[in-house]
Design brief:
single chain; 94 residues; alpha+beta; Alpha-Beta Plaits; 3 helices; 28% helix; 29% strand
Length: 94
Amino acid sequence: MYGSIFNLKVKTGHQQDLLDSLTDGTPPGAVAWYVMQPDDTSKDLIGVAIFESKDAYNANAESPEQHERFIKAMTYLETEPEWTDGEYIVTEVA
């Protein structure tokens, strides 16, 4: 599996708008994705995206549909997300 962990700096008063924009469908090849609100609510939201493979991840990243989702999400963010991409090498599901 392959994916990204990312930080989201949300504009004041736009958190729910952002969350709503992120729930408009699961991209092909996606296994799961999460957005976490840290206990210290002054921190950025943290997202995790998991895809079947690096090819599926890249196909999504390059798709016009994902570009539109990104443009919409950016209206609610102060800056572009900080991304850390890579292969998930240990996975355990309870």
